Model the fold of this input.
Amino acid sequence: MALDLIGDRLQRLDVFRGLAPEQIERIARDAERLIFRNGQKILDAGSDGEGAVIIISGYATALADADAGLDAFEIEAGAMLGETAMLTEHQFRVTVVAAGDVRAVRINRAALLAHMHEDPTLAEHLHGRLTSRLQRVAVELRLIDERLAAVAQTEPAAIAS
Done:
């Protein structure tokens, strides 16, 4: 798998967007290259993740999980799976299988943590990107909560009519 293709995929991901080319190249160079054949598990629900998997080419399917209320869905090239696992201990919550041949890379937690130790600006960047995303999610959840509260206030009046 060409280093420039891996680097291109990394740069398109929100968490890595804005990193210096040298930082992207170093992460791409240390990424573990993976090939999955049709039906082969990429992630296994309940298993411990050692890093995030980024699909470079091909498609995958997240399997349905009735207990979690999750329907099956397709995952395209460019997607990152198990992002949390590249930063901290994490158990995967969904099983993902290859739909045809899939080329992917794994950003191993140990390697990324070593990069952050050697390059504190990388750690600052990742912290900033993740914090920003969490703040956006918090705002979206607050808006949903406000909408639900508004609906709950208007329902009794509608029922009384």
